[in-house]
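Q: Study each token:
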Amino acid sequence: MRGLALAVSLIIGLYLTIYIANMGGYVDRIRKAEIREQVGVQVLGDPTFKQLPASEQRRIIDERVALEEKRLGLDKPFILRSFGYLARALTLNLGRSEHFTSDSGSRQVRLVLLERLPATLALFATANLILFFLSLYMGLYLSRKYGSLLDKVTIALAPCQRPRVGSTGSSSS
């Protein structure tokens, strides 16, 4: 049951990350605007299309934008795309990077992530070791300075639940 709960929590957390990172579909609108701009620059910069009337140029731009949006799946509703993103994220099939490459020159996101995973884990482990020993040192130091200003500040800032005054835990009737 715990494994199932962990898997469900992971899937929900991953979906929320996808939704929040995409700002509920806003990033897709930005992406569509970038596509329109790129296609517009390509068509208007091409000398063969400069002779055409503006309405014909606009039609060509709209057709190419629609093709590119369909190729990228941006013609589908965001909710459907977000579940597609979730399925690809769960299998680490994240496509190709537009800006980053791995040290081997690959643009596959999976390879970029897996290549940086050892350094990330080393950084995480080092930070946790430092945090552990710092916490141990601070706990021992504060135990010798009971009642000091630093002790009172630490207790005030500690995220713990204090028992209520007058609550003994037993019922007297």
Notes: Residues 55 and 61 are 10 Å apart (CA to CA).
